[in-house]
């Protein structure tokens, strides 16, 4: 036994029954919608068999982490899409499933996951104009709701990618490879949820689906929206790949800087070491050992040579000092703040930066 709805011009009637009740429940001007949330397999199979949709052969009740899938036959449509939501606290992309089976006269939907696109669509069933669109209207509204969730998730993901990019190029010497790889993995999961639907979106734009449920002006808009989201995901992935390459180059530069600094200090340390080695050879005739100014002269010589080496290495950039307490981004922000305070008349013309 499961709940289903009979939708007609007069309104929505909620019923409870078995799969065998579905074909007779709909009239000439009404249709049946059976919506399953984490369904038991027997009820789902019974509903699909009763409506003649079991030949589409997808089991949303058991299989997890499937790729989106579209099956179009002469008289039926099966549309399996991934629902997506983004957890800002952990920077994770989570996915669920929404499967739609329809032959134009009845509709079976199966949901798995936190996001429920059907919730808002059920509320719209109170509008007579929306009910008059029939099953195609509901299918298009559900697809639109799923794509709208994509839109919110990609905005949050793009913000995190932008924040990571700023952190990488902030000037702080912090290894962020793990953070970059983590966001690449989450972006890839998002891409796997959206990209398989792009061919369908192009078919809808070119009016080649041949199914009433996938045609119409609204579906054209949803298809265009989906294609734009796929492009935004590609942009995030490209940016992350570029940031990863640049960051690995940064790490190589940091290592080279460290090696140059070590080499410079080692060269400076060689001078007193060499002098001490010479005067530690215990030769019998070393006149400098008997000079009254021998010791001060040798110390002055060591100091002068070390100072000249230090000055030369400093001028050539071999003795770099990197401030780990303040990034270049923060210094630029402070500098821009001083400039704006110094020229108040230009303040309204300067672009604002959101933190």
Automatic annotation (TrEMBL):
Gene3D superfamilies: CorA soluble domain-like, Magnesium transport protein CorA, transmembrane region. InterPro entries: CorA_cytoplasmic_dom, CorA_TM1_TM2, MgTranspt_CorA/ZnTranspt_ZntB. The chain crosses the membrane at residues 262-281, 293-310. It is a multi-pass membrane protein. It catalyses: Mg(2+)(in) = Mg(2+)(out). Keywords: Cell membrane, Ion transport, Magnesium, Membrane, Transmembrane, Transmembrane helix, Transport. This is Magnesium transporter. The lineage of its organism: Bacteria, Bacillati, Actinomycetota, Actinomycetes, Glycomycetales.
């Amino acid at each position: 036994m499961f709940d289903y709805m009979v939708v007609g011009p007069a309104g929505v009637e909620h019923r409870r029954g078995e799969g065998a009740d579905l074909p007779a429940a709909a009239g000439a001007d009404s249709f049946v919608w059976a919506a399953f949330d984490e369904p038991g397999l027997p009820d789902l199979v019974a509903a699909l068999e009763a409506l003649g949709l079991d030949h589409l052969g997808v089991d949303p009740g058991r299989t997890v982490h499937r790729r989106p899938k579209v099956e179009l036959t002469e008289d039926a449509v099966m549309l399996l899409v991934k629902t997506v939501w983004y957890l800002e606290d952990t920077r994770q992309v989570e996915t669920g499933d929404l499967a739609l089976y329809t032959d134009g006269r009845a509709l079976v939907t199966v949901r798995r996951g936190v996001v429920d696109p059907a919730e808002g669509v059920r509320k719209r069933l109170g509008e007579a104009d929306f009910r008059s669109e029939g099953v195609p209207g509901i299918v298009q509204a559900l697809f639109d709701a799923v794509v709208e969730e994509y839109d919110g998730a990609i905005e949050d993901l793009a913000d995190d990618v932008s924040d990571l990019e700023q952190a990488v190029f902030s000037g702080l010497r912090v290894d962020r490879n793990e953070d970059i790889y983590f966001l690449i993995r989450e972006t890839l999961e998002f891409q796997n949820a959206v990209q398989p639907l792009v061919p369908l979106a192009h078919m809808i734009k070119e009016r080649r689906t041949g199914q009433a449920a996938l045609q119409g002006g609204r579906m054209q808009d949803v298809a265009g929206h989906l294609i734009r989201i796929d492009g935004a995901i590609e942009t995030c992935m490209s940016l992350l790949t570029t940031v990863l390459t640049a960051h690995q180059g940064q790490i190589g530069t940091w290592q080279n800087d460290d090696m140059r600094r070590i080499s410079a200090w080692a060269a400076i340390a060689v001078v007193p070491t060499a002098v001490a080695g010479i005067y530690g050879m215990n030769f019998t005739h070393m006149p400098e050992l008997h000079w009254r100014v021998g010791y001060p002269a040798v110390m002055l010589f060591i100091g002068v040579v070390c100072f000249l080496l230090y000055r030369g290495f400093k001028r050539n950039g071999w003795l770099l000092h990197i401030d780990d307490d303040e990034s270049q981004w923060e210094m630029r922000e402070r500098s821009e703040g001083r400039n704006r305070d110094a020229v108040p008349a230009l303040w309204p013309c300067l672009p604002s930066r959101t933190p």
